[in-house]
């Protein structure tokens, strides 16, 4: 039995995924497969590190130690073949607020910022709440796989005088792992026109062979001068509630600008337990992660094979990275509101594709980072939903 097969009760623990069902969906008696967190316990080394810190009993202001920085340097080298310097690192409690800080530091109110929908919806919020102009360069759906529209990107940069491009790498919700060639082409365009790239790489550790994540700032050309890379152990090791993330910024001028934003916000350190968990995860989490990736891949395969055999009205976009599966439901001919209700009536809560922006209409996102028994239950509920309208 895999360690990931254990079904752990999360109701009553203030878990957004389980305890917010009534508030978000209007009903509680559904299987939650919407929020992007795992239903797996963190690695033992992480749990032990948190327990050790908690046992100390004094929880005063805590610095991020050099040992934590070194654990990230080592992790990036081993997992992503990217040699970074610990001086390049800044820390924040999450990737989303780091996107906001980068927007504030590197652009001005009214400047255009480009995103690629359908994409993680907080990107839209960070642009608009910082009073920048949100510009869409919609991904192309070709042969059930997303591609960047490079001609459109460059045209939007020129016509909108864009100052920043926010990249989701690997892509959420579609699961694309962008190739070195794709990233190089994108970076060349942005370099040509003086556009900063902020790359959300929070799913980068969850890629599967033969796909390999390439940090855009690691490319041989001098793209690191205008890129900001955002990482966190939160998706990789299910640590989102401990709120610890890092920014990798090789360019000292860019890094200083973002540091000044953090200073204005009064942010200067992380949660003590989050620091301990982050370091333990990056230092000792390799074996756990390898097992998790294999387990999640088997869950992905279960969804794909079941849908193809039992629910041919739906089409699964097989992810190259992450534990999120993007499902095309457009053949059902339902509105997004009707789709959500259809699956809820069958007892499953999924991510509604429309919230990920243009191109997401008619899709649903399912999180398979949970025990296989729950994945099996989930696809059977999806079949029940589709069968009900035949």
UniProtKB/TrEMBL annotation:
Show the CDD domains listed in the entry: AAT_like (cd00609)
Instruction: Output the superkingdom of the source species.
Output: Bacteria
Keywords, A to Z, come to: Lyase, Pyridoxal phosphate
The record ties this protein, via SUPFAM superfamilies, to: PLP-dependent transferases
**Example of a GO MF term:** pyridoxal phosphate binding
Q: What is its EC number?
A: 4.4.1.13
- Give the protein's cofactors: pyridoxal 5'-phosphate
- Using the record's annotation, list all stretches that form the Aminotransferase class I/classII large domain: 35-381
* Broad enzyme group: lyase
NCBIfam families linked: C_S_lyase_PatB (TIGR04350)
Q: Which family does it belong to?
A: Belongs to the class-II pyridoxal-phosphate-dependent aminotransferase family. MalY/PatB cystathionine beta-lyase subfamily.
> What name appears for this protein in its UniProt entry?
cysteine-S-conjugate beta-lyase
Query: Taxonomy-wise, where does this protein's organism fall, top ranks first?
Result: Bacteria, Bacillati, Bacillota, Bacilli, Bacillales
